[in-house]
Amino acid sequence: ILQKREISDLLPVPCLHLSSIDLPVPFYYDRYVRSNPTSPEIIELAQVEFDYDGIRISGASTDKIITRCIGSELLHIVRNTDVEQRFLDDFVDVGFVPSQLYDQHLGKKYPDGFVLDDEDEGWIDFCLYDLPELRATGWRVDMDANFRFNFAKVEDWTVTVEEGGGNDWFGLELGIQVDGHAVNLLPVLLNMIRQFPEQLTVEALAKMADGNQDIIGHLPDGRLLLLPSSRVRGILSVLVELYDKDANPERFELSLVQAARLAELDDAATGLRWMGGERLRALGKKLREFEGIQPVAPPLGLKAELRGYQQEGLNWLQFLRAYDLAGILADDMGLGKTVQALAHILLEKESGRLNRPCLVVAPTSLMFNWQREAERFAPMLRVLVLQGLSRKQHFESIGDYDLVLTTYPLLLRDKDVLTEQEFYYLILDEAHIIKNPKSQATRIVHQIKARHRLALTGTPLENHLGELWTLFHFLLPGLLGDDKSFRKLFRTPIEKQGNNERRSLLVRRIAPFLLRRTKAQVVRELPPKTEIVRYCQLDGTQRDLYEAIRIAMHEKVRQEIDKKGVNRSQIVILDALLKLRQVCCDPRLLKLPTAKRVDQSAKLELLMSLLPDMLGEGRRILLFSQFTSMLTLIELELARHGLVYVKLTGDTIDRATPVNRFQDGEVSLFLISLKAGGVGLNLTAADTVIHYDPWWNPAAENQATDRAHRIGQENPVFVYKLITEGTVEEKIISMQGRKRDLAQGVLEDGGEVSAPMTAEDLTMLFEPLG
Description:
By secondary structure, this protein is α/β, with parallel strands linked by helices. The protein contains 30 helices and 30 strands.
């Protein structure tokens, strides 16, 4: 016989069971089946029970008394419905709806169930924020293995760094500790990038506020992982740029600069525990504590007084060296990049850090300039010029010098010697020469071993952003990613889509590693420069010749593009445009019988109407043309007018004599081919520059103009551009503006971005005369 016993003083313990269930088609018929007649619905369900000393009863039960047979006793447990109701009220206040109110079919099968109207977002908020509070008030919670919102608790965060064989690459592993087990976080983060490419962009991560936009990832066992933005935003920003679906998901190879961007994150703020990589962490600490570039005293042995901006350049170069970084000194031509570099090298020597030679690679025309300026400004430096056949006898003693000078053409011949030697600095002057990543010179400079690298160029970007990538790939591999990722992240959005947000991001990325001062910024040390465009019209037989060639060549170009497309028709396009430009300059440049019969040249007439008056006023003139044959025709006219001149082309062997005659005032007119005089000349005696014909690349024209517009010039400089109206030349001027906008938009923040040349541009170039 069972003994009856009534218990009325037990307090209920609320219990919550969470699960994810598949609902067959009959459920949710009204709201679901019509759009998905065969698919099941997955829904999260919360079931409430109350525990009375180990005996549980459904929260949906209406029984006032719980009857259970325990051993020889028949227990009657009186439910405390008031306490139960208070627990239920707190639970419902979170936003739960009883299953029978949500859907009648669901309510019949799960009468003690509750659901959330807000579905996924509601469950995430509940599990992260409300569930801990319920537990704190006495609720017991258990979850089915299939519950989709089971968040794992992270106990520790670690970063393991392994230095690679070289000095500039690191292996990086990210780990977390969950339930006492180590979990590799990289696959979790990469899976997020793969699943949400639109939400996890560089721009979105940059805008993410610390602590306010936590990210949720999925562990391999199905549990969720809450990733605070303060910890993973910096990591994700690097991974997004490096993301490659074929990459190793367990371990990443990062360059020094990329890894340092992670290492500079404050350990206290991120909670990351670093293991290994002491050199990397030291750099990260330096970057984290960076308070600005500190001024340095110029070297004692420098035989020059640095101008203010040149001292700032020296400070910047010292900053790069101290942080094991590299950069581009991109001052306008004539602002003294060479003397800043020499001051930097001399300071390294005086400090005792210069324990290996510095190698400077420069155009052949600048060898004498480097040697002369080193002797003049830094006579303490031991300088070796590797040039000519006698250079080979000095190969064995390269290590005995402070400064070794060589040329780009000699890189291939002396490759074995230069790549065997270890240098303290590798400096590329006129570094835009290596803008083609596939050229032999570019490949060789990558192989030369040097502790530090520096690029000097007034035109780090001339035609497209790929040139800028090539320079930084040499200086700081990984800063802008590989060529493929750079094209995806920056070049295509900026050049083709005009994305100024990406342009600004690129500007910020390269800003610490590129120092550029324009003449306008140091205007007190330079005279003003005035640009004047003078137009002329084609008339008579010259106009007829232009139109005949334009029509014929336009048809030829169209046919070629139809067969091969624009990119594979470059030879035909350039040949057609060349012929039109030659007609504009002088029909005699064309090797055609019909052209020889044309005795008109509107532009030559314009030039000869200007020169006598200019020379009569005492002007000192540099006259540039791309066509040496055009300079020959101009010479004939000058002789006819009795005007004295000197000339410099690629065929000139003795360059010094015409330069000295002009600089000394013996001659006031200097004819120069654009390529021969674009770099390496200092002609401050000039106050007038004439560009007889426009060039596609405004940077090439500007370099020529800068022969006169340099530090030391005491007179205002006037720049004349001679253009035939309505012709291909006028279209070139328009396209020059777009290339200039592209360069300024990246090198100088605040510029709008223009797209590169398109098929429509070709149509414009072949438009008929008005």
